[in-house]
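Budget justification aside, the reviewers requested a transparent look at the raw inputs and outputs of the sequence design task funded under Objective 1. We therefore reproduce one unedited record. The lines immediately below are the structure tokens for a 520-residue chain.
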């Protein structure tokens, strides 16, 4: 029983996998050593839930630099996209890394706030007291922030001195260290806390007293009730702990904090690759928290999303031990769901509008489908050498990354859009209104199979294929095709981004490649 309410078995993505844990700190040397040791130990998958400067090239980005060494040993790498929540803020973007953004789930640990006038607002909490907190008793509500002072609005340390909160429910605005706000309230004698806003997202932290965290919109209604009570009556409320509730919509959705593309450094490859659960994920904790003395907590971030993908990588590698990291990455990307549970475009929780392609990548991780992708887009070390030469890396940098001398003048350079990547991203200009990219797929599905294409054209662009079907009579056979993407007049404003997709459909498989078009 983790938080006093639930009593069932929890499992990771790959429950039989052996975990090897390596110390990674802010020092780059520790991260480099961790990768070096993991490679030496012969691991199959590496997960790095650690950020990097979005402007770092592949040599300065530890994940890209050391990940290339791991790639040479056939090791898959999953990395977090970052938690900056804005465009062009990806922590990592090398094509040999699977970059993972965070999604918001369809469940919550619900704690309802019921006001004295009967109004009810559903919030969240990570603390349950069904025996210690009597939800049938309405308690007085106090709002220290009514004076609009920053300290009392946020229930900072010492801010409740001189305010009578004993045996009352205290209204506090959320911010940094929300758990400590509860400690302040409890130390002052408060019975419970309603944590408010400041955005629409709510959280279930390991609070030390009864708490419901409500959205900004609901918070304003609660404050309005408090102020309207005035001198005529005492505002009251209670908190009703409802346990885990599922069915929240929209879900999955893009977490507001999840970093977005496009990449500043990879030359034009769509990142993040996919999104995965990264909001209020139950995991182990090195310290105890809350009134329940255990070592578990709910946490959020792309650092929680990337391990989900790492687990699926382990499952795929177990099933297909000869597959390359690129093939495994391809399986994850092309099988991702591109709509939410209601069949609609993913919602961006930062804006409450449909999420764009640089927030969601190919879509949401779908483990069962990733285990049977049908077709894969494969690559090898030589492809990455040509790609990095195409980025303009000099001989010194190439030797550092590749670990050997590389003469780019003798290497066939590969433009980012021409790398055999599962997704497609091109830049169209009035001076170059079309681009043709080549893709090669390998059949890993049915021995005898035929795939027909379905195209969703990006806005202001058309997509034309060189073939109208893919026919296979054996596994591991390959087929190549051209994809020509052309601007459709009138030319959109510079910087406009539109999106589409290319789907190859057989009797048993659907292989999806997202398409991003940037107009320059």
């Amino acid at each position: 029983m983790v938080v006093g309410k639930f009593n069932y078995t929890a499992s990771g993505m790959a429950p039989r996998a052996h975990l090897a844990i390596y110390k990674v700190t802010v020092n780059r040397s520790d991260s480099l050593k961790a990768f070096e040791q993991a490679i030496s130990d012969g691991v199959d998958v590496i997960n790095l839930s650690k950020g990097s400067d979005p402007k770092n090239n592949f040599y300065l980005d530890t994940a890209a630099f050391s990940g290339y060494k791991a790639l040479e040993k056939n090791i898959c790498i999953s990395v977090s996209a970052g938690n900056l929540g804005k465009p062009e803020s990806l922590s990592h973007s090398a094509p040999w890394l699977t970059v993972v953004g965070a999604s918001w789930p369809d469940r919550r640990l619900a704690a309802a706030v019921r006001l004295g006038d009967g109004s009810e607002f559903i919030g969240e909490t990570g603390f349950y007291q069904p025996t210690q907190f009597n939800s049938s008793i309405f308690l007085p509500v106090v709002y220290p922030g009514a004076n609009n002072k920053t300290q009392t609005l946020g229930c900072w340390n010492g801010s409740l001195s001189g305010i009578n909160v004993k045996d009352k429910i205290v209204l506090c605005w959320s911010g940094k260290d929300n758990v400590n706000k509860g400690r302040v309230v409890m130390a002052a004698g408060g019975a419970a806390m309603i944590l408010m806003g400041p955005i629409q997202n709510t959280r279930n932290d390991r609070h030390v007293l009864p708490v419901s965290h409500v959205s900004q919109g609901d918070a304003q209604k609660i404050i309005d009730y408090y102020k309207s009570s005035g001198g005529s009556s005492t505002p009251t409320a209670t908190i009703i702990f409802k346990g885990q509730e599922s069915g929240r919509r929209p879900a999955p959705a893009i977490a507001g904090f999840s970093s977005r593309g496009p990449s500043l450094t990879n030359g034009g490859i769509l990142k993040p690759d996919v999104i995965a659960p990264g909001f209020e994920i139950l995991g182990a904790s090195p310290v105890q928290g809350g009134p329940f003395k255990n070592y578990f907590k709910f946490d959020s971030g792309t650092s929680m999303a990337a391990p989900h993908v790492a687990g699926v990588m382990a499952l795929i590698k177990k099933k297909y031990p000869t597959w390359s990291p690129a093939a495994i990455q391809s399986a994850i990307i092309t099988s991702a769901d591109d709509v939410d549970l209601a069949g609609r475009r993913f919602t961006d929780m930062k804006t409450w509008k449909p999420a764009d392609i640089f927030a969601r990548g190919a879509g949401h991780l779908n483990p069962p489908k990733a285990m049977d992708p049908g077709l894969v887009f494969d690559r090898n070390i030589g492809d990455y050498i040509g790609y990095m030469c195409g980025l303009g890396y000099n001989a010194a940098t190439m030797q550092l990354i590749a670990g050997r001398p590389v003469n780019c003048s003798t290497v066939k350079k590969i433009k980012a859009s021409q790398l055999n990547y599962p997704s497609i991203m091109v830049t169209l200009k009035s001076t170059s209104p079309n681009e043709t990219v080549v893709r090669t797929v390998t059949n890993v599905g049915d021995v005898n199979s035929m795939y027909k294409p379905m195209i969703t054209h990006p806005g202001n662009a058309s997509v034309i294929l060189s073939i109208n079907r893919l026919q296979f009579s054996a596994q591991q056979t390959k087929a190549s095709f051209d994809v020509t993407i052309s601007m459709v007049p009138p030319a959109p404003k510079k910087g406009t981004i539109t999106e589409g997709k290319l789907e190859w459909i057989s009797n048993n498989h659907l292989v999806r490649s997202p398409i991003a078009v940037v107009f320059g």
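The radius of gyration is 26 Å. Residues 380-415 form one domain. Computational costs for records of this kind are itemized in the attached budget.
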